[in-house]
Amino acid sequence: MREFFLLFDPWLIQPFRWPESPLAGYLLGLFVLGLLCVLLGDAAAILVSRLNRKVYGGYIKDMVHHHELSIKAAQSGSRENYKAVNRQAHESFGRYFFSQAAVFTASIWPLPFALAWLDLRFREALVRLPVLDYDANYVFFFIPLYILARVIYSRTIGRMSWYVRLRLAATLEEARPGPSGG
Fold first, then answer.
1. Contact, 146 vs 39, CB < 8 A?
2. d(CA 164, CA 157)
3. Is the model's pTM score more than 0.90?
4. Count of domains forming the chain
5. pLDDT (tens digit, 9 = 90+) per residue, 32-43?
6. For residue 13, is it within any domain?
């Protein structure tokens, strides 16, 4: 893996060298690396959603269908029917929930690679935090900066109409009626 990381090293290290200040360069480089992880992860999540949209759409349709049936069963007063249909609705929700957990997992796949590269490059680099009397390594700074990059990315990209259309095409296409009209 070392050779793999060294192949990308010249590009990954560049943001760390942009500012004059070593600390500013370190923090900027970590933030840019985090943003790169967010971009690659989002592309992977969109791809996974796109490839599985029919399956996920089936989960949504089942969930909605069983929920509607459970409401009708509750209104009819049949406790047994309500419990049976509601259990099916919960199972459909569980399938959809865990499928979305898989999409989230696809969105964070770059993190282990980024952390491995950081370990290769900055294993010995420690930043002294005098207030805490603690020497912090790259993980201490990278994880919060990655989270910040995710927040900034999601708040910005979500306002771009082309991105909203892309996400909808990847996730909601299955909700459209099929040839049979339903």
1. no
2. 8
3. no
4. 1
5. 999 999 999 999
6. no
